[in-house]
Fold:
Amino acid sequence: MTRFILYVCMAFITAFVGVSWASRGFPMRFPSPVSSHPLEPTVSATFGDNSSEKKRERLAEQQLQDPQNAQRNPLRADTLQAATGYALSPCDKTMKANLVAATRAYAMAYSEIGKCNPMFRNCDPVYDKANATYSTPLDLRVREALHEAFEKGGVSKADFPPGLQMAVMSLANSQGNPVSACEGPAERVRR
Structure:
């Protein structure tokens, strides 16, 4: 019995000390170091530093001068034409098929350049190269046209294979809307 009372008292004292310590914010007093020196910064970045922007511009310039860049122009033109056609006529099934086919090819080329396994290496340079490759003025027009087409409705990420959905959403800057604006209210209810 005395052992039980001793354990109960120890539990109450421990609880009291723990609650008191917690109510004070868990302070811990350590002896101060003998010699202290001011801390030195370990990061050399400053506010307003635009070195990453300069690096991105340099990569874009290199990609514009790359001979393979001109080989991507027909792919860009097809995607731009299909996206513009769908934005102008979203009710046409042929326009949707053309948009899906062209966007699939465009996203496939983008994902091939940006293919990297982050488990085994640093993928930032690979992603930077892919983004620089697809940031030419024509690519920016393609992205705007894709965004406009996806926002019209009737086309969404579900129209693409799962391996390309992230690339398509990244390029179009939209998930799209599977419900077309051309469908009447009765057709929407049936789905």
